[in-house]
């Protein structure tokens, strides 16, 4: 019988994570910015494949799996998907990775470092270019044709304020879904080197952010 329960980060610290599995189902962008040092698997929710975990990763259907995201919503969806595939012992980590960090889990934090997509342009630069283009065109059209075009610039400004206050940028999220950004996301370290690992591999303390292409070189 399938069981989906919740578990606190404090309780998770007492589990045998050599036998059990933490499964991080956040996006590549979120994972590259911050991830657990503790051994875990990483597989984004939108590409979660329960049968790969069974056949390629050797997990058993009675393995205890602790699904991790930011708030618990995606972890619940992941647990439901795994339950439908026959996994029986599933848990949602309460409070997500933020609560884990507060509970004392060691975390690799790369927040603020540029993410480079295949082709060499960071997501941040794509946001800057898009925002600048929209503002420039809207102001130009507003002065030339109709002042209503200026509201586009106003909307962009309001969006930037929201992004600054919440650390959530809707435009960055949309751009991350663009075809040219779907292939690989890597994090550039302070020294400028980049590296990648299997997207669904089990990460260890020194495992770099994931890459869908193990043979990719740093741009």
TrEMBL record:
GO-annotated molecular function: transferase activity
Transmembrane region(s): 127-145, 151-175
Gene3D superfamilies on file: 6.10.140.1340, Rhodanese-like domain
Region (Disordered): 194-219
A Pfam family the protein falls into: YgaP-like_TM
PROSITE patterns referenced in this protein's UniProt entry, alphabetically: RHODANESE_3
Low complexity bias: start-end ranges: 200-219
Domain Rhodanese: 16-109
Keyword Transmembrane: yes
Keyword Cytoplasm: no
Keywords: Membrane, Transferase, Transmembrane, Transmembrane helix
PANTHER family: FAD-DEPENDENT OXIDOREDUCTASE, PYRIDINE NUCLEOTIDE-DISULPHIDE OXIDOREDUCTASE
Protein name in the entry: Rhodanese-related sulfurtransferase
UniProt lineage: Bacteria, Pseudomonadati, Thermodesulfobacteriota, Desulfovibrionia, Desulfovibrionales
């Amino acid at each position: 019988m399938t069981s989906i329960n919740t578990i606190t980060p404090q309780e998770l610290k007492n589990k045998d994570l050599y036998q059990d599995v933490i499964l991080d189902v956040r996006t590549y962008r979120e994972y590259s910015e911050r991830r657990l040092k503790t051994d875990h698997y990483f597989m984004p929710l939108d590409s979660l494949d329960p049968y790969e975990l069974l056949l390629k990763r050797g997990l058993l259907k009675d393995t205890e799996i602790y699904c991790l995201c930011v708030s618990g919503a995606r972890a619940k969806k992941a647990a439901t998907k795994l339950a439908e595939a026959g996994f029986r012992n599933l848990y949602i980590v309460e409070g997500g990775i933020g609560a884990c960090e507060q509970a004392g889990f060691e975390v690799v934090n790369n927040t603020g470092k540029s993410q480079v997509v295949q082709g060499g342009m960071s997501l941040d630069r794509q946001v800057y270019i898009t925002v600048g283009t929209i503002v420039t065109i809207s102001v130009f059209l507003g002065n030339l044709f109709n002042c209503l075009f200026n509201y586009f610039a106003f909307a962009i400004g309001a969006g930037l304020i929201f992004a600054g206050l919440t650390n959530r940028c809707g435009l960055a999220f949309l751009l991350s879904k663009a075809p040219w950004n779907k292939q690989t996301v890597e994090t550039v370290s302070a020294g400028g080197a980049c590296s990648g690992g299997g997207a669904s591999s089990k990460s260890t303390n020194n495992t770099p952010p994931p890459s869908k292409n193990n043979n990719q070189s740093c741009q």
